[in-house]
Amino acid sequence: QVRFAESGGELVQPGGSLRLSCAASGRDFSPYVMAWYRRAPGQQREFVARITTAGISRYLESVKGRFTISRDNAKNTVYLQMNSLKPEDTALYYCNTDIPLFSWGQGTQVSVSS
Fold it and tell me: What percentage of the chain carries pLDDT values higher than 90?
């Protein structure tokens, strides 16, 4: 059974940094394009970043230059380094394949507030 276990979220002040991790299990995800998504309170889930098998990345315009997605295929894990965090980054963050193919995990809560 495929599972995504997101972690690393917490309360941080504006301008701070966090590194999120997503440990995937149940199959080998190295052939897949992987992505991070987020859902802010009262809003729909949105795409944040994706990374191809070759390591090519693409980002939501509002996080470009601040967030960096990476992957470690040996660990079946995807990361999201988030710098210069803003209050509008507050959301529940999830990972999945690009064009989500599997059930969502529990997500990890990122709260940016002073």
Answer: 95
